[in-house]
Fold:
Amino acid sequence: MNKLLLLLPFLFLIGCQKNKENPSKTNPKYVVDAHSYAKPNEAVAKHLDLNIAVNFNKKQLSGTATYTIDKSKKAKEIHFDSRNLIINKVEVDGKKMDFRLKKGDAVLGDDLIIPLTINAKKVAIDYQTNGNNDALQWLNKQQTTDKENPFLFTQGQAILTRTWIPIQDSPQIRITYDATVKVPPELMAVMSAKNPKQKNQNGVYHFTMPQPISSYLIALAVGDIAYKPISNRTGVYAENSIVDKAQKEFEDTEKMVQAAENLYGKYPWEQYDLLVLPPSFPFGGMENPRLTFVTPTVIAGDKSLTSLVAHELAHSWSGNLVTNATWDDFWLNEGFTVYFERRIMESVYGADYANMLALIGRQDLDETLASFKNTPENTKLKLDLKGKNPDDGMTDIPYEKGFLFLKTIESKVGKEKMDAFLKKYFKEHAFSTITTEKFIDYLKQNLLEPNHIKFNVEEWIYKPGIPNNAIKITSHKFEDVMQTIEGWKKGKISPQEICNKEWVIQQKIHFIRNIPASITLKQLKELDNACGFSNTKNSYIAMVWFEQTAKRNYHENNIDKKMAEFLIRVGRRWYVTTIYNALKENGRLKEAQEIYKKARPNYHSVTVRTVDEMLGNKEQ
Ligand code: BES
Ligand code: ZN
Structure:
């Protein structure tokens, strides 16, 4: 005890020393983010108390966002991001305060500037949405699976949270939150937080997210949904008619969580649930903490598309626990997640499976590289998205080039060292954000230098294209596919024999994507009749088949009608843009536009924006 007391002054001195070395003036905590008006080095939100009502008739959210803030002594105001929000009233520590909504641009929205008193602690913003809020998709009954009740969901990434909450919308600013959400009593609300498992009578739901997260990860969904557990910490929410099917489809989720934990440490968010959304959901999945949002198109009946769950789960570490500081560093989220996803898949389903995923990814990457041959700057890992919509950075480059970078390093150092490094990286950066530059330093100091490895890190990250030392991805499962294609071309193997092969989905996908140009329409029809591709229930096969048939002007078996139906029902951006693009590239733009006219009202704003651009739609 006495000895400890003697030590105290020294400890105090060490503490001061540290502060001196790292004054926030010379070394600001937050870097410049071109996509946010917040000035977090001056005044930053730490906790959000959200109290909102959801009005389906008016398609409006209204309520109060109350922030607990941290400010420097000098700060005279605090800045929030806000886009298409009506700000009714602002209070600072309970006193009404005049605010300014400084007009910004169409992508960033406005700068909400609130003057602060010297010791200001709480800022309460009374607001409502204005009906044109890109994060939100309000679905009528007909647009849901059960067709009995309306549905609402939010999509925050990259900078859409500011369209439903006035917020400091930069990924490097982490906040905890509590929320109270009032919804019609026949519906249930869930968030990226501790969630209810049942509906309640009054339609008022309370949420807490005790761990600090970035604004893009705040999410809300409201609908007639039910919950089914998978294990004591995993489960699934879905509309009533599909919840059992979803539970079955995703029954390996607990195994995946365990595989992930064995690789890179304890699951950091306690609960891992999935929410199956209506088919207009614009992504395959979105990694909202504790509650991944997924498209219903992954429910194939045979678990064949569940690598998507591994992907979103992996984000619980790469993305949600350790977060890209700005959208220019997006590859740190997605490249690591693709690497981690494939490690989980390898551990649960074997190396062959993971290799097939990697080779499909490599083919995607090559197509993307080819499409950027006139704009090579888009193929850098570290992006420069200043003045652009950060959504434009969401190409295969951060995902697949990022994966290839890590896989190539792994091949140099070996899996064991790679895993020890990644585990340490997640542990030491938990609940914080990281820039590309900081990551490069960390990689050199903790992996490359100690192992005396020379590696062209800068070339990989700052230069376009793929460096020469990229490892070659191979899969012997795909060799059989390529040989089969050769045999078919030469007439040595019949369509029926092809369909009888016991291939897994990735092999089928690889087969369809590599059908050679020399195959005639007659042969394509024989194949279709034998394998039934035009009637497939598997959304991934449907998508690549429609891509091929669109390119080749194949019109048999009612394919055009089926393709149009698919495009109208499904709003998953990757799927629909692949098909529209195939039509467009093949001189069928008019047809694509005709279908899109009918489909557009079903799509979420992020899909609308991309397809508008692709098909030259000006109408809003
Ligand atoms: N976080 C992304 C989705 C995203 C990225 C939304 C950028 C908005 C802006 C998610 O984890 C993702 O990558 N989804 C992929 C699936 C995955 C298996 C590659 C998708 O939706 O296609
Ligand atoms: Zn992802």
Remarks:
- Residues 1-25 have pLDDT under 50 and may be disordered.
